[in-house]
Amino acid sequence: MSFSYSRLSKPSGKKRLQELGDYKHRKNEIIPPHGGKLITRYYPDLKIKDGYPVVKITRREWCDLQLIATGALSPLKGFMKKKDYNSCVKDMHLHDGTLWSIPITLSVNDDTFKILKKKDIAYLEYEGKVWGLIEIEDMYRPDKEKEAVYVYKTDSPEHPSVAYLKSTGDIYVGGEVKVREISDFRFPGEFFTPLQTREEFKKRGWRKVAGFQTRNAPHRGHEYIQKTALEFVDGLFINPLVGETKKDDVPSELIIRSYKAIISKYYRVERVFLGILPSAMRYGGPREAVHHAIIRKNFGCTHFIVGRDHAGFKNFYGPYDAHKLLESIPEKDLGIVPLFFGNSFWCKECGGMVSEKICPHSEEFHISISGTKVREMLSRGEEPPYEFMRPEVSKILINFYKSL
Predict the structure, then answer these.
(1) Topology of domain 2-183, per CATH?
(2) What 3-state class would DSSP assign to 49?
(3) Which of 216, 257, 271, 375 is catalytic?
(4) pLDDT of res. 30
(5) CB neighbours (10 Å) of residue 171?
(6) Hey, where are the domains in the chain?
(7) Which of 229, 242, 260, 289 is 20 to 30 A off residue 48, Cα-Cα?
(8) 3-state secondary structure of 330
(9) Which of 316, 372, 312 is nearest to 343 (CA)?
């Protein structure tokens, strides 16, 4: 299913494109986009012509293409050329000095490279459909081992992104893209572009907005962090990642259902906005935390919630490595305020949700359950303790595990 801008904006054709592409920060806006300007690459009138090669892209590349199209990856206009890629990998900046932590690349194999050498344009196909094109400006052979070690801090194929790098083509194609269609990722009611979220925040009168990244079903710890953040801002943007996750992660549709269930009952609904993030998860720890913060800045968030082991995977990163990296970045470069939270849990002695920063009691009084144990309980049809997870969420997940 695809999304049409007509749902929230009436202009069409060249006028619509001009409004999207020429969007600039105005005095009454919340926060300027990363790089100072929201850059979109959506061309609804793009025609497919004969004579150009077609490159089949991965789901990760398709997700990135969609984010570039809507401006979520501003200031990128396409897949990285060699100078930007090398600078990003080594120094966590684009070639012009703009902070950027995760390489956004398009990979091809040697056979495709031979075809593209003679062309200046290639169409980008995913699941049998052409979504747009790339204007080929650069082709280069990256050092993927260096990319893995610098970006993901490991060269172990056990890490999902290292395994991905090893599975894709050895040549990167760089250049600006044009996207003819934008997908709503089967969440038409929760899909919003950065331009739309900015307008929504402005309409609600939110000057300070905290973004929350998640790929998991909500438990009481998440709720505690979100509500604590709400004490300091005007609104909360809950932004679950739905583009691509691991096979053993809870399906995105259940994450959305779970959040809808608890927001309607336990939150001030006028202070919460739920919208999906159609991105691929890298499980990149500290560097991905920076990436997530930049994306939420483009959506219009002024603050970004960073929890324990943000975007982590197994034991590849320390529990607060993301905090340390974000703290080391100058405010003028990041442009969004990180809100750091420790591990949260229910303490029987304190009589409520607390974090390790404030609770003085030992672990014997804490109700904190590992993900593995929670999955085991849910698969047996058992509800985790109320102090750990709301029953509305437990029931949704129990039904899911029963269906397996």
Answers:
(1) Sulfate adenylyltransferase (3.10.400)
(2) coil
(3) 216
(4) 77
(5) 18
(6) 2-183, 194-403
(7) 242
(8) coil
(9) 312
Element (DSSP H or E) covering residue 132? strand 129-135
* Active-site position among 60, 215, 308, 390: 215
pLDDT at 404: 81
Task: Name the amino acid, one letter, at 20.
Answer: L
Report the chain's mean pLDDT, rounded to a whole number: 92
Tally of CB atoms within 10 A around 71:
26
Q: How far apart are the first and last CA of the chain?
A: 26
> SS3 for 59-85, per residue?
HHHHHHHHHHHHCCCCCCCEECCHHHH
- Please write the tens of the pLDDT for every residue from 216-252: 999 999 999 999 999 999 999 999 999 999 888 899 9
Query: Is 399 part of the annotated catalytic residue set?
Result: no
Question: Can you tell me which residue has the tokens 């299913």?
Answer: 1
215 catalytic residue (yes or no): yes
Tokens of 199: 């307008």
CB crowding 22-50: b at 16 or more within 10 Å, else e: ebeeeeebbbbbbbeebbbbbbbebeeee
194-403 to CATH, choices 3.30.565.10, 2.60.40.10, 3.40.50.620, 3.40.50.980: 3.40.50.620
